[in-house]
Structures are given as structure tokens and as C-alpha cells.
Hints:
By secondary structure, the protein is an alpha/beta fold. It has helices at about 5-25, 45-50, 65-70, 90-95, 105-120, 145-155, 180-195, 210-215, 225-230, and strands at about 35-40, 60, 80, 100-105, 125-130, 160-165, 200-205, 220-225. It has a single domain, classed as Alanine racemase (TIM Barrel, Alpha-Beta Barrel).
Amino acid sequence: MDRMVENGxxxxxxxxxxxxxxxxxxxxxxxxxxxxVAVSKTFGPEEVAxxxxxxxxxxxxxxxxxxxxxxxxxxxxLEWHMVGHLQRNxxxxxxxxxxxxxxxxxxxxxxxxxxxxxxxGCRLPVLLEVNVSGESSKFGLAPADVPAVLERSSALMRxxxxxxxxxxxFTEDPEGARPYFRRLRELxxxxxxxSGFDLPELSMGMSHDFEVxxxxxxxxxxxxxxxxxxxxxxxxxxxxxSEMTPAE
Length: 248
Ligand SMILES: *Cc1c(COP(=O)(O)O)cnc(C)c1O
């Protein structure tokens, strides 16, 4: 990879960091409270290494198979998060590859992750993906179903639910996402009270709307395009609209 390309990465990473910092300031938050998850789907190990060289060390993938091929070729100190929809038949591979799963959208999946962790001998922090908008095209638990999952999870010894994740409907104006981010934070406050779970992490905000998400309390922003550039591959058929790169 030549210098020009690497410089491009540094510029983009620094721009994202600066925007996170400014959004934190607007909201009276400490920028240390926000982690950037660099979503590297469709990009290769060289690009991951170039972004890691800019000082980012948390990376996100949305498909287990792609991650399984890529991660062994990437710098070994990186922490990988699963941010995409996880099928139960991929759980055993996923618990070996990832340090956090953002996209737990059913009790059955949570139980499968717990069982796989037991087998592997690990523990895993996870987030519940909540479908705040109620759009049928979106993965995620209906808010009404979350309290029962939280309650059931106390019996699981290998997984801990450390927060919530959401993907808002796409709107041209990033401000359109604000009510969904705010709602997720409010739901978190309510469930914190009712369940006794602390739920410190809020995974919300992507390239298009992460500043709004930071203003609304995001602790993990999942950023692909703004760091890596426009994805080369088309999203697979049936991918959620929010996974697609606008204007490609
Ligand atoms: C691809 C993806 C992202 C990153 O999207 P960008 O718009 O490129 O920043 C974030 N979260 C999930 C779940 C994704 O699949």
C-alpha cells in the first residue's frame, strides 16, 4: 500500500476523532467515553493494518465468514466486535473471533452464545439490538420483549448484557435519527431501574449520523465509510437498507 493511501486513512481517522470530540463538547461529555469501532467489512487486512496504524484498535465486522478469513491476517493486538446479524449456526465461530457481540436479537441467540462460551471456556459481553423504530425490515428485539430477555440472562453464566444497540431508519438528514437514539437512551434508563442491570454501553451511530448519536449518549460508534471510504462490494441480496452505502 503506498503512502498516499495511508495518508488518506490518517486524515479520515483524525477527522472522525475530531468530530467525535466536538460532538462530545456540545453535549458536555468526555470524549474518552466514546469508542470508535472501525467497521472493516469488505476491506482487507492491509486496509485494516493501515487504520490500526492510525491508532484505532477496535474493529467491527458484520459477517462471521468474512471475519474468520480476515482476522488471522490482521495485526494481533486488535479487538474485534461483531456488529451484524448473527445466525445461530455461526455462534461457535463467533465466540472465538469476537470480544463483543453488538447484535443479540433473541433469547435463543443469547442462550446459544452462552452455550458456545461454555464450550470454548470464555466469557463474552454482549449488547441487545433493539428495533426502536418498529420497521419490519430491521433486526432487533421489540422494546416490549427486552425486559424478559434481561431477566432470563441472569441465569446465564458466560454472557453478560452490558448495553444496547440500535440502527435507526435511514433519513437524508442525520437529525432524523435523533429521536431513535434518544429513545434507546430513555429505554436504557427505564430498564436500568427495572432490571438492576447497569447497561453502560450504547452502540449507536454510523458514518452518516454518529455525531447525533454521540450527543444522545453513544459509547460505541460503528464507523465504516467515513474511515475506510466507500465499500467496493455490493451488499448481499436482502441486506438491510441501512447496511448499504448511499449513492454508490
Ligand atoms: C456496515 C455497518 C456499519 C458501518 O456503516 P457506515 O455507514 O459505512 O459507517 C455500522 N453498523 C453496522 C451494523 C453495519 O453493518
